[in-house]
Specification:
Blueprint: H1 25-33, E1 35-37, H2 44-52, H3 57-66, E2 69-73, H4 76-80, H5 83-89, H6 95-104, E3 114-116, E4 121-125, H7 133-146, H8 162-168, H9 178-198, H10 207-218, E5 227-230, E6 237-240, H11 282-291
Parallel strand pairs: 1-2, 2-4
Antiparallel strand pairs: 3-4, 5-6
Length: 292
């Protein structure tokens, strides 16, 4: 079996540290604090938490601030049909929807874990478990961390490690809609890249992909409503916020610092900032007035 992290030598004296991130008690605590249990508790939950504890604590805390919950349930359908999922969904599912969930995500389907972005739930089954537990858990954790800020760009699919490229060739990641296919493939690549980063194989990732991944993971403002976008046609990058998160001149605290908005047709003067207006250093004059 091709495990994402090579298994330890059973005769190793454990005198050398293994690559990748190390177990963090804080990460384990953060994961436990956002976890929901559906049904009976099972010993496998401790193994799941041990894997989640390999992620940096800042990443688990970011999930908490985004409202993400980790759900332990006997099977995936048990989690998605639970009262917790219904409350987040805001409605009861139809009989046909319930049947589809039980069929599509049953143990027989091989579904070992999922991240549901609409419910913001990371679901891990307790009735069965993946043999390569680390890869499955970290992959879905990678989705939970990166999906909301992913920037679908074809450049992120180039020069991939062979195992990620093989993963990407899976038939379900294609689509008749090129835009949708690109979105799905980039999401999958970022999730796999996150696994590589945690287990110490980040050096195998192409710089373009690693750069985007690190930017997403460091963009802690993501939970505050900021969207980082990229316009492939023009090459422009964008940071978008909801209007309620912008400050305008009528703001009592910051409004006096802002410029007046001219008409859209106005022809505005262009000059170097260091160039005085009409021979007068306006900035210096304002500083003197403020000091006075």
């Amino acid at each position: 079996m091709d495990l994402v992290r090579p298994q330890r030598d059973p005769f190793s004296l454990l005198t050398e540290s293994s690559p990748g991130t190390r177990f963090s008690a804080r990460s384990r605590l953060f994961a436990r604090n956002v976890a929901i249990l559906v049904g009976d508790e099972a010993p496998i939950i401790d193994r799941y938490l041990d894997v989640l504890a390999l992620a940096p604590p800042e990443h688990l805390d970011l999930l908490r601030r985004r409202g993400t919950r980790i759900v332990f349930a006997p099977t995936i359908p048990h989690a998605l049909l639970s009262s917790a999922a219904t409350e987040r969904r805001g409605r009861e599912l139809t009989a046909n929807e319930r049947l589809q969930l039980r069929t599509k995500y049953s143990p027989e389907s091989g579904t070992a874990a999922i991240f549901d972005p609409s419910l913001n739930l990371l679901v891990l089954p307790t009735h069965y478990v993946a043999r390569d537990l680390e890869r499955v858990v970290l992959h879905e954790l990678g989705h939970a961390l990166t999906m909301s800020l992913a920037n679908p760009r074809a450049a992120l699919l180039e020069d991939l490690p062979s195992s990620i490229a093989k993963h990407l060739r899976h038939h379900e990641y294609g689509s008749d809609n090129p835009t949708e296919a690109l979105r799905v493939q980039v999401n999958e690549v970022l999730a796999e890249a996150y696994v590589y980063l945690v287990v110490g194989r980040g050096s195998e990732l192409p710089m373009e992909l690693l750069s985007d991944l690190m930017f997403i993971l460091s963009s802690v403002e993501g939970e505050k409503g900021i969207r980082f976008e990229f316009d492939e046609d023009s090459g422009r990058t964008l940071s978008r916020l909801h209007g309620s998160r912008l400050v305008f001149p009528d703001d009592p605290k910051w409004g006096h610092l802002l410029a007046k908005r001219p008409s859209d047709e106005a022809e505005l003067e262009v000059r170097e900032l260091s160039q005085p207006v009409g021979g007068v250093d306006e900035v210096a004059r304002r500083r003197r007035n403020r000091a006075a």
